[in-house]
Specification:
385 residues; Aspartate Aminotransferase, domain 2; 3-stranded antiparallel β-sheet; 39% helix; alpha/beta; 7-stranded mixed β-sheet; 12 helices; binds pyridoxal-5'-phosphate
């Protein structure tokens, strides 16, 4: 069997940690009860597993377990947060968000906009960060929600969450942060951040796909988006995905213990990778150098162009242009466009994201493969530096 390429696309999804799989397995075949079944041991055992997992998820973000709602992933959590808040308070219907949000936020905002909800899309600076003064200036008497992501999925840029939280608290406006790329990678605490709602997703943090969380501070009211059996205090009807919840709980527990060591190891390797490529000349980092995720690098590489470069390395390395360039629509990255990057720069920009199971050997191999591919593409393009 041919060897798999080295996986450097952990912001797209992560492999599940075998330790997570191990704790999940009994919940498929042995502890298969419905946690809402109150009258027998099958239900009790499942409910006990769910409670323990919930506690682990809550601990990772400094929340109380009763403030967590399990969903099918970040997309559902985002829909629930945005629609759940806005549809619940028609008199406060203005949303402030930002131009570099994930499409799950932007598309949900667009559909609310179509219903008559005014939306302000804050611009970002050349590093992808919002300006607090601009945020403050955008606040209106009818502002009902501030929605700014924690960390960007293309550049890893980490927004000034604590400051945004302080401002939203001072203005008494709920603050929702999509922390899908941040939770489990850097500290995210609902105690410090001043955030009222936070979402994240199992498959971005070595847990299973199809499970996510919406954290909702106790005093925040929310309109449920699914009708049904009124599970989870009615906020999200539907039988709980018990194996997924167990897996997410374990993924959270592992991240809590290992996050800091993992972050320093991956950021060291990421920096080495960047420095090695930058030594070639004509290689530039997109996004902030200091306030960014430890495992992520977004590089503009002069003299190589998008898809051809990725495909030429396809048997050796798996990386991407982020959500930058869908091969079907060939849309340019809205994130890099918002950072005032030209279409030429965007076309030659790539996202490399390292992960838990990468080895030093793999990163060294990736450096060599990338260097030789860059040099040969440049020769082909007649690019000289
Ligand atoms: N938000 C961000 C920042 C993401 O990176 C992603 C996934 O790419 C999502 C939301 C959607 O997550 P999910 O796949 O769990 O629906």
């Amino acid at each position: 069997m041919p060897q798999s390429p080295i996986y450097l696309d952990h912001q797209s999804t992560t492999p599940m940690d075998p330790r997570v799989l191990e704790v999940m397995l009994p919940y498929f075949t042995k502890i298969y009860g419905n946690p809402s079944s109150r009258n027998h041991v099958f239900g009790w055992e499942a409910a006990e597993g769910v409670d323990e997992a919930k506690e682990k998820c809550a601990q990772l973000i400094g929340a109380h377990p009763s403030e967590l709602i399990f969903t099918s992933g970040a997309t559902e959590s985002i829909n629930l947060a945005l629609k759940g808040i806005l549809l619940n308070q028609p008199e406060k219907n203005h949303i402030i968000t930002c131009a570099t949000e994930h499409s799950a936020v932007l598309d949900t905002c667009a559909s609310l906009e179509a219903l008559g909800y005014p939306v302000t899309y804050l611009p970002v600076n050349e590093h992808g960060l919002i300006c607090l003064e601009e945020l403050e200036a955008a606040i209106r008497a009818d502002t009902g929600l501030i929605c700014i992501h924690f960390a960007n999925n293309e550049t890893g840029a980490v927004q000034p969450i604590t400051k945004i939280g302080e401002l939203s608290r001072a203005k008494n406006i709920p603050f929702f942060s999509d922390a899908t790329q941040a939770v489990g990678k850097i500290p995210v605490s609902v105690k410090q951040g001043g955030v009222d709602l936070v979402c994240f997703s199992g498959h971005k943090m070595y847990g299973p796909k199809g499970i996510g969380i919406l954290y909702k501070r106790k005093n925040i009211s929310l309109k449920a988006q699914l009708e049904g059996g009124r599970q989870q205090a009615g906020f999200r009807s539907g039988t709980l995905n018990v194996p997924g919840i167990i897996g997410l709980g374990e993924a959270c527990a592992i991240s809590r213990l290992e996050m800091s060591e993992e972050a320093s190891r991956l950021s060291e390797w990421r920096d080495e990778l960047e420095q090695e490529l930058m030594r070639l000349g004509g290689v530039h980092q997109n996004g902030p150098t200091d306030t960014r995720l430890p495992h992520c690098s977004n590089l503009y590489i002069e003299g190589v162009s998008g898809e051809a470069f990725i495909l030429s390395l396809g048997s050796k390395l798996a990386f991407s242009q982020g959500a930058a360039c869908s091969s079907v629509t060939r849309q340019l990255s809205h994130v890099l466009l918002a950072m005032q990057k030209s279409p030429e720069i965007i076309e030659s920009s790539f996202r490399f994201s390292l992960g838990r199971f990468n080895t030093k050997y793999e990163i060294n191999e990736a450096k060599e493969q990338l260097k030789s591919a860059i040099l040969s593409h440049r020769i082909h393009q007649g690019y000289s530096f």
